[in-house]
Amino acid sequence: MIQAGFTFENPITKGRTIVLKSDAETNGNGWLLEHHSVPHASPEIPEHMHLTWTETFEIISGTALYKLDGVEKTASAGDTIIMQPRQPHIHPWNAGETTLVYRQFDQFERPNAQAVQDVLGVFATIAGLAREGKVNSHGELKDPLQLAATLKTLNKYGGYDAKLPSWVQDLLAATLGSLAEALGYKAIYPQFVGEG
To answer: Which residue has the higher pLDDT, 160 or 196?
Structure first.
């Protein structure tokens, strides 16, 4: 179970994420993270969107680039970025010469403690798989079956890659994602969320 204080690092992007609030502190209504990014790091997560939840980013220090509705923008310390449901976006990444620190608050349409645990578990698992060399230089999972299992869980909670229509991803989740799970792939591995 991921609780406040849980930390995970991605060796590809060299990003470090600290969970400040999990479902216990938000009553299942999202999470609060603090993310630290080294200078000139690439984005942690590809362009995506959420059907029902809002993401708010507060830049604590440094300079960031981010993408919202296909437009790349800049933000700096003191700026707040709001990414509404159904808006394709890329989370802030470091565009400066110093460490970028931001806080990310995700607020769900309605409380769902399991969604908080599962989505944070996916993030922690991707970082863990990166440590094992199973993620490419763009932060994407190399194994298509691992990707299918991961997307199946994210799609379940309304999280979608921005490159494909959501219905195509739902179809892939129901077919390839289910096959991946039958073969033993998981979106969340216990050893990466402190349970192994």
So the answer is: 160
